[in-house]
Specification:
alpha/beta
């Protein structure tokens, strides 16, 4: 099982998509570890929408305060560099351009475009998340279900981007409660 938060949520679902990658695509080589399930916590699951919305462009901008519950940066001196590298958002920085500039990269990296994954999935978002808005999860889940994937969606009322990884927050407890069933579903 792969579990990830934010960009890690994208990566968790992308890992589940690796068996369907075309030969020669990044990540297609080697056997990898087959996944039984995947969990995305406040994940960025539609990279084209993330590019259009410039998600992540505000991270590192010293003029914009971080979300209230964001952990302190481990290396605050890197904030100006991060802001310089992500003027148009994290997706464009990750993929080397916008969705219109490098559409093939988005098609290979965006979980929404890698559907169906063929493994059970749990997608969790906080209703008050501004880092990866709940629409990221809702759009993904609708498309995944339409293509036959088994996906549970949990939108936690009042939760923000970091609540879903706070061990003391009810949203994390909801994830922990669902993991045994997710793995059981994967075995069936």
């Amino acid at each position: 099982m792969a579990i990830g938060h934010s960009a890690g949520g994208q990566l968790a679902l992308w890992l589940a998509s690796r068996p369907g990658l075309p030969a020669g695509a990044p990540g297609s080589g080697g056997r990898g570890v087959p996944l039984a399930a995947a969990v995305s916590l406040a994940g960025v699951l539609d990279l084209r929408a993330a590019d259009a919305d410039e998600l992540g462009a505000r991270f590192g901008d010293p003029s914009v305060p971080p979300p209230a519950k964001a952990p302190a940066p481990a290396r605050p001196e890197l904030a100006p560099t991060l802001a310089r590298l992500t003027p148009h958002g994290a997706a464009a920085a990750l993929l080397g351009g916008g969705a219109d500039d490098v559409p093939d990269r988005y098609a290979l990296a965006s979980p929404l475009e890698r559907l169906p994954l063929g493994v059970p999935q749990l997608v969790v978002h906080g209703s008050d998340d501004t880092g990866a808005p709940p629409a990221q999860g809702g759009t993904y889940v609708t498309a995944a279900r339409e293509l036959g994937d088994q996906v549970e969606y949990v939108e936690v009322p009042g939760a923000d981007h970091f609540d879903v990884i706070d061990l003391d927050h009810p949203s994390w407890q909801a994830v922990v409660r669902r993991l045994p069933d997710l793995l059981k579903t994967a075995e069936d």
